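Repro:
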Amino acid sequence: MARIKCIGILTSGGDAPAMNAAIRAVTRTAIYNGFTVKGIMRGYRGLISGEFIDMKTQTVSNIIQHGGTILKTARSAEFKTPEGRAIAYENMRKEGIDALVVIGGDGSLSGARIFAEEFDIPIVGLPGTIDNDLYGTDTTIGYDTALNTIMECVDKLRDTASSHERLFFVEVMGRNAGFLALNGAIATGSEAAIIPEIATEVDQLGELIANGFRKSKNSSIVLVAESPLTGGAMAMAERVKKEFPQFDSRVTILGHIQRGGSPTASDRILASRMGEAAVNALLEGQRNVMVGIENDVIKLVPFIQAIRKNKTVDRALLNTVKILSI
């Protein structure tokens, strides 16, 4: 295997808080170990259009506290085609990039796995997604910050919910994963979390109403994971209107606010540790792996496992929400 001299970094898919902390850690660890570093703007799209920048120590100064990503991010339909990936590889070769660090979620890492196999490129992935849905890591970069954002928003909502004695459905992100909704519900003292993982097993709304959730409350807040399986908060409110018209319900969709803001200390530390580990993995000749963390220990997970294996929510936490909401 040819010796790595230059490492490329890109952020792909949805942005997540502390991606900048990860970029900083990868850049500085690489420079410390004698590599040159190239930043690739706008993810895989930039790899195809040839948007490269030289990364120096000063390039990543004063970015650890900022949300978003200085390298920008985009989704690329062209990279999903063999022709698009061939152009991306040619551009990498022209630029002298020998290995890649890809920061993103499951879609980004799926693309990295295919690209690495097609062209025999050493690639290490970092789990950058607020959804926390990647297998092989206890937590993903950006998840803790998003959870804190949800907590702050719901705390504010609680003030108005209490004043009006209404049932509020708050829709949070997570795609097909209920981690934000479930842990957000515990952190905010919400009455319930409606999550996709059990959507086909139980009527979560019906169960909530049947349990007499308003008996000792002057306000009720329910966190709903956005998902075709749950139908989201709007679908819940529609059902209440039709089936339980005695309740006055309202919907709040938190949307992209969950992706933004200054990352928490926990996310900054996680991203910094993972960024350093990514470069160390390349130094050790590792490839096609994602950096994960389990029980506070950094580990390497094959892409195929991180992407294809399902990460499950702790169902016992649903009971925790129920018990603590009486």
